[in-house]
Amino acid sequence: MKPEPYTLAGQTYALAGPEDYFALLKPRVMSLVIFTAFVGMVVAPGAINPLLAVVSLLAIAVGAGASGALNMWWDADIDAVMKRTEARPIPAGRIPRAEAAAFGGFLSVLSVALLALASNYLAAGLLAFTIFFYVVIYSMWLKRSTPQNIVIGGAAGALPPVVGWAAASGTAPLDAWVLFAVIFLWTPPHFWALALYKRGDYERAGVPMMPVVKGEASTRKQIFAYALILAATGVSPFLIGMAGFLYLAVSALLGAGFVGLSWAVLNAAEGDYTSSKRLFGFSILYLFGLFATLLIEHLAGLHG
C-alpha cells in the first residue's frame, strides 16, 4: 500500500523512500568521482592498507553525494522548470528542501571526518575544499552569474583523482594535477555539447550557459578549441612517465575521435544537434577510456 502524502509548511509531500535519498546523491556523478579517485589511488606511488583504501574511497563517495544533495537543495527552483531535472526528489515534492540541506550537510561533515581518520589531513582538506567549491563557488555563485560557470566550476569535478592520490600517498604532486588538468579541460566541451541541445531548458531556468549567452556559433567554436587542447593534454601522462605505450595509443585514438566529433559539431547547421549528442556520449567514453587504461597499466605493471 502506497504511503499517504504529508503536509509541511503548507506544502504537500509524498513520503520519500530510500531511492529518493539515493537520487539526491547524484549517483551517476558519484560513480565518476569514485572511479577517478580510485585511479588516483592506484597510480600514486607507495602502498595503502586495503581496508583503509576502501574506507577512504567510501568517504570520497559520501563527499560527492553530499555535494550532490546540497546542489539539489540550492538549485531546487531551477530544477523545477527544467525538463531534464523536474523529476528530481525536491521539485517532484518527495523531499523538502530543508531536509535535503540537512542531509547534505551531515554527509559533508561525515565524509571529511572519515577521510581524515582513514587516510590523512591533506586528503580530507582537499575533499572539504571540493565540496565547498562545488556547492558555494559553483552552485551558489558561478552557475547563475557567468557563462564561464562550467569552466571554472569544473575544478570541483576534476579534484577527485588528486584527493585519491593524496589519500594513498599523503602528497599531491604535479603528476596528480596532470590528471586534474585532463578532467578540467574535458568538462567544458562535455557540458556545452549537452547545453547545445538542452538550450531551451537553461533559457527557461535563467541559467547563463554558453549557448544561451553567447549563441550556438560561439559555443561550437569553443568546443572545438577545447577539444584540441584536451587531445594534446590527454597524452601528457605518457610524456611525464606516468603511463606507458598502451595509454599513448588509447589516448591518441580517443583524442582524435574527440577532435573529429567536435569538428562535426563546429560545422553542423544551426539547430542540428545530432553531432552534439554524439559528442556528449563519446565524451563519457573518452574520459572513462583514459582512466581505465591508466588503471590497467598500473595494475598490470605496464607503465613507464
Largest sheet: 2 strands, antiparallel
* Residues in helix, %: over 70%
Average pLDDT, rounded to a whole number, is: 93
Which architecture name of the largest domain does CATH use?
Orthogonal Bundle
- CATH H-level superfamily of the largest domain: UbiA prenyltransferase
Secondary-structure content class: mainly alpha
Biggest β-sheet: strands ordered side by side in the sheet:
1-2
The name of the CATH topology of the largest domain is Tetracycline Repressor, domain 2
* Succession of helices and strands: EEHHHHHHHHHHHHHHH
- Radius of gyration, whole Å: 20 Å
What attributes does this structure have?
Tetracycline Repressor, domain 2; 304 residues; mainly alpha; 15 helices; 2 strands
Q: What does the model show?
A:
It is an enzyme of class 2 (transferase). The protein has 304 residues and is mainly alpha-helical. It folds into 2 domains: 13-172, Tetracycline Repressor, domain 2 (Orthogonal Bundle), CATH 1.10.357; 173-304. Helix content is 73%, strand content 2%. It contains 15 helices and 2 strands. The chain has helices at residues 18-24, 27-43, 50-74, 76-79, 97-118, 121-141, 149-158, 160-169, 174-197, 199-205, 210-213, 216-234, 236-239, 245-266, 274-300, and strands spanning 6-8, 11-13. Helix 1 packs across helix 3, helix 3 runs antiparallel to helix 5 (97-118) and helix 8 (160-169) runs antiparallel to helix 9. The longest helix has 27 residues, at 274-300. It is flat and about 50 Å long.
